[in-house]
Design a protein that fits this description.
Blueprint: H1 3-18, H2 20-25, H3 36-44, H4 54-64, H5 67-80, H6 89-102, H7 112-125, H8 147-169, H9 171-176, H10 181-198, H11 207-211, E1 229-236, E2 251-258, E3 261-268, H12 271-281, E4 283-291, H13 292-302, E5 309-313, H14 320-326, E6 329-331, E7 334-337, E8 340-343, H15 349-357, E9 362-365, H16 369-382, E10 386-390, H17 398-407, E11 415-419, H18 424-440, H19 446-463, E12 465-469, H20 474-478, H21 484-492, E13 496-502, E14 505-512, H22 515-527, E15 535-542, H23 546-560, E16 565-570, H24 573-579, E17 584-591, E18 597-598, E19 605-606
Parallel strand pairs: 5-6, 5-10, 10-11, 15-16
Antiparallel strand pairs: 1-3, 1-4, 2-3, 7-8, 7-9, 12-13, 12-17, 13-14, 15-17, 18-19
Helix pairs in contact: 1-3, 1-10, 3-5, 4-5, 5-6, 6-7, 7-8, 7-10, 8-10, 18-19
Length: 615
């Protein structure tokens, strides 16, 4: 595989990762469980290191594949990663289409397969692929550079039409008012892949411009609750016949093989029986079973007609699962580590902290203006009102970017931007509480409810607080946030600063020398808090110390704040990349409504269905 192909595959995977939350939000087929975007992101992640040889990369794709769409995509892309030149793309696409369709027990039109078939037809009927992959021209940004760009624009238009038709081809998509998530995901990947491979940069419609009106589930659509499990497994066996018994154990089956490994995906009521059958067929390499009942109920609960749609930044220690649960749009930052740049959602926390401990240089950056503007366009196309709680302007320029974009819109009052003056968990607790309020007020007077949500958010930003406990100063120095001299003396004296995010930046509120001292400081601060009318929402954030926080810290927080709702979450990697492993944080906000019931201590409480008081 040439460098051009490797870079193009990586570009496609990265673009798909950026759109994964959109795909999750419209995922209703074959199961309305809201995980197609995440499954595709995980399945295509090996392409981000596409410099590997084809066979090794095919193996990693097979092992990484998750869900229906991820397994179909991996089967198709397994042929592309073997492609050495541009001229070989067309036959590789033909083979990949056949293999992808053949891997599905019950192929359906209106899915990713329809987009792949359209790609095969278009490549056969166009003279687009004429240049050698080693001698492609440099792109001319923003203008069609000639016939090649016109051909590509036409091809992408046909692929977009195949995506648009999915709305009509599958009844559940028509009922929900959306496109097929897997088909849209493949389009997003292919568009960026082809643009990078052909080194063309014509003016193209954005995703909202192409598919406006079909990117938001119709209010009132509850999906179809489904019990059972989604199984992804890998078996080391060369005997397909030994797996015939799987046909009676589940549905939505996708099976493909590579060098003695069989990858199996299916939905089943009995994961134990599937595991036994696979174990009898060969050596079980991996086995993952996700509970469809939990996923579909969570997704159905997320589909509400909220009075105002919330948007925030991943720097607020607000996870993709939180965003799906509460119907919040999450905008990711980028992490640069050892020469690689990945969206925060695609960076594995354990690897980041391992690299930092090994001395790797780490930095962060924001998404491009184009990427953010495309998201803003889609949000205003899908929602009557949008509230964007940005990370504090003292920490980044995101607020100014969003405010400038808003001021250039014909209806700027529909897109409200608030500078939170916060980051990390302080922003996270405010976003969660605000999103919960927006969902409780759904179905009421839209204008009045939207004003109440905005008023609550403003007030909560002034009341929320956070303590961030750093373990080592050297990571701040490595990122340029602290002088090396200060870091040297601080490390020598074993100083552990305690900071809090504020409108004018991070403020130091204390210094200790041990973890025991950190806890003592936290307990004193919690002991000074006034009683809450309802309860305290507490966000405990971990870097590489999750077990310690879960087992030791969370129960003691509950002792000091009886009735609190304690949520354990990973610290935003945007924050973790600067503060380093060993860091942990405690954010809290007093709320006027009571939680309904306790879940496992340290993991959180079920949200209350009772309406809160006036914010």
């Amino acid at each position: 595989m040439t460098a051009d192909f490797g870079e193009a595959l990586a570009a496609g995977a990265q673009e798909l990762g950026r759109g994964s939350s959109l795909l999750d939000s419209i995922n209703v087929y074959p199961v309305a469980d809201g995980d197609t975007g995440e499954n595709l992101r995980l399945s295509l992640a090996p392409l981000l290191c596409a410099s590997e040889e084809g066979l090794a990369l095919r193996r990693r794709l097979l092992l990484a594949a998750r869900g229906n769409s991820g397994n179909i995509a991996a089967r198709f892309l397994g042929e592309l990663v073997k492609t050495p030149t541009l001229e070989a793309l067309r036959p590789a696409v033909d083979r990949g289409c056949r293999l992808a369709r053949g891997a599905v027990a019950e192929p359906r039109e209106g899915t990713m397969l329809s987009v792949l078939d359209a790609l095969g037809r278009e490549l056969s009927g166009r003279s687009l692929l004429v240049a050698s992959g080693d001698h492609l021209p440099e792109p001319t940004a923003g203008e069609p550079p000639g016939e090649g760009a016109e051909e590509l624009v036409g091809l992408l238009g046909e692929l977009a039409e195949a995506v648009r038709l999915t709305h009509q081809q599958l009844p559940i998509l028509s009922e929900a008012g959306v496109l097929d998530a897997g088909a849209l995901g493949m389009f997003i990947f292919l568009e960026r892949f082809l643009l990078r491979l052909l080194r063309l940069d014509p003016l193209l419609p954005t995703i909202p411009q192409r598919f406006g009106g079909l990117l938001r589930i119709r209010p009132g659509f509850g999906g179809r609750q489904q019990e059972g499990f989604c199984v992804d497994a890998v078996v080391r066996s060369g005997d397909m016949a030994s797996l015939d018994s799987l046909g009676g154990l589940g549905s939505s089956t996708v099976v493909h093989s590579h060098e003695g490994l069989l990858k199996i995906h299916l939905h089943t009521a009995s994961p134990e029986d599937v595991r036994d059958a696979l174990g009898a067929a060969g050596d079980l390499v991996s086995f993952v079973a996700d509970d469809l009942g939990v996923q579909t109920r969570r997704f159905a609960a997320a589909v509400v007609d909220e009075p105002i749609h919330l948007v925030t930044d991943a720097a607020g220690s607000f996870t993709a699962d939180d965003a799906l649960e509460l119907g919040v749009t999450l905008l990711s930052s980028y992490i640069q580590c050892d020469g690689r740049s990945l969206p925060e959602s695609e960076m594995v926390a354990e690897r980041l902290y391992e690299a930092m401990r090994a001395g790797a240089r780490v930095s962060t950056s924001q998404a491009s203006l184009q990427e953010r503007h495309e998201v803003f366009d889609r949000l205003l196309g899908d929602h009557q009102r949008v509230l964007y709680l940005t990370v504090g302007s003292a920490f980044s320029g995101i607020y100014e970017v969003a405010a400038r974009w808003r001021d250039g819109q014909p209806e700027p009052h529909r897109f409200l931007v608030l500078d939170s003056g916060a980051a990390s968990g302080k922003l996270g607790v405010v976003v969660r509480a605000t999103a919960e309020l927006a969902r409780r007020l759904a179905g009421g007077d839209p204008e009045g409810s939207a004003r109440a949500v905005v008023a609550f958010a403003r007030e909560a930003l002034g009341r929320a607080d956070e303590l961030i406990f750093l373990d080592r100063l050297k990571y701040l120095a490595a990122g340029g946030r602290l002088s090396k001299t200060a870091s040297f003396f601080g490390e020598a004296l074993r100083l552990k600063p305690i900071v809090t995010p504020a409108a004018d930046g991070a403020r130091k509120v204390g210094t200790v020398r041990s973890r025991k001292d950190q806890l003592a400081f936290a307990w004193r601060r919690l002991g000074e808090l006034p009683p809450a009318t309802g309860h305290y929402l507490v966000l405990l954030q971990h870097t590489d110390n999750e077990a310690w926080l879960r087992e030791e810290v969370a129960p003691r927080v509950l002792e000091r704040l009886p009735g609190a709702r304690v949520l354990l979450r990973p610290m935003s990697l945007t924050s973790g990349a600067h503060m380093g492993p060993g860091t942990w944080a405690l954010a809290y906000l007093a709320l006027d409504w009571k939680p309904q019931a306790a879940d496992e201590p340290g993991s959180g409480y079920a949200p209350d269905d009772a309406p809160p008081g006036e914010p």
